[in-house]
Automatic annotation (TrEMBL):
The lineage of its organism: Bacteria, Bacillati, Actinomycetota, Actinomycetes, Kitasatosporales. Residues 82-109 form a coiled coil. It holds the Pfam family TipAS. It comes from Kitasatospora griseola. CDD domains: HTH_TipAL-Mta (cd01106). GO terms for molecular function: DNA binding; DNA-binding transcription factor activity. This is Transcriptional regulator. Residues 7-76 form the HTH merR-type domain.
Length: 263
């Protein structure tokens, strides 16, 4: 235990606090914690007050506060840290919720691997062709729709599909995609009968293979085609994409949803 009024070298403080000398030098450079005294030999020394400040810094660092925010908290001794701590508490709770959802995604992925169809790389290419299931998008989508019963049902049904199921599903998708591109290149209006019928076929395809897909749910799916290239790439591989095609499909799905709900 250090004696009251003693001073300590950077090496001693590193040992007390369980940090590296480099970390203490970094705090010094950043103006967050500088030794208050010098020894007779000219070495910079930390006082008891410095150690108390270091304890505060390490407390806030443990909670994930950035250096700039710690500097702001410590700059005014009269200011209270309560508002900062409340905000960090909120952020940590959000992170915990996100991590919990990621745990659920991992558990579901493990279950798919346990119960899903086993495909060799050659079989995957034979079935899916250029379409690639982007894991990062699938994870983001699961986090986004984690509380949706439709999302859970979709994943469960996908896990039960056999190789033959996937072959039939992808054959239907390939034919539909060909017709979509032809309609787009022909200059068909997105709110015309042909485009809306293709949108309806897509909605029925989702229902047949994955989950009930009423018009409002279909519109939510289509919104991702405009905002996330990964979503559209799972429907139309990059080699087949044309400028404006994603917007065309989105508009057709919107028009078909209006037609369905008004009808």
């Amino acid at each position: 235990m250090a004696e009251q009024g003693a001073s300590f070298s950077v090496g001693q403080v590193a040992g007390f606090a369980g940090v590296t000398v480099r970390t203490l030098h970094y705090y010094d450079r950043e103006g967050l914690l500088s030794p208050s005294e010098r020894s007779a030999a000219g070495y910079r020394m930390y006082t008891d007050r410095d150690l108390a400040r270091l304890q505060q810094i390490l407390f806030y660092r443990e909670l994930g506060f950035p250096i700039e925010e710690i500097r702001s908290i410590l700059a005014d001794p009269r200011a209270t840290a309560l508002s900062h701590l409340k905000e960090r508490h909120r952020q940590l709770n959000e992170q915990i919720a996100t991590l919990q959802k990621l745990v659920e995604v991992a558990e579901q992925a493990i279950e798919v691997e346990r119960t899903g169809v086993r495909l060799s790389p050659e079989e995957r290419f034979d079935i899916f062709g250029e379409v690639r299931w982007d894991l990062s998008y699938a994870t983001d989508a699961q986090l986004k729709w984690a509380d949706s019963p439709r999302q859970r049902e979709s994943m469960e049904r996908a896990a039960r599909h056999s190789k033959a199921d996937w072959q039939q599903l992808m054959a239907e998708s390939t034919e539909w995609r060909r017709e979509l591109i032809v309609a787009f290149e022909d200059g068909q209006p997105a709110d015309g009968e042909r485009a809306m019928d293709l949108a309806e076929q897509h909605r029925a395809h989702v229902e047949r293979w994955f989950t009930p897909c009423p018009p409002e749910a279909h519109r939510l799916i289509a919104a991702d085609y405009l905002t996330d290239p990964r979503a559209f790439a799972m429907l139309v591989p990059p080699s087949e994409q044309l400028p404006g095609l994603a917007r065309f499909l989105h508009a057709a799905i919107e028009a078909n949803a209006r037609r369905t709900m008004e009808g």
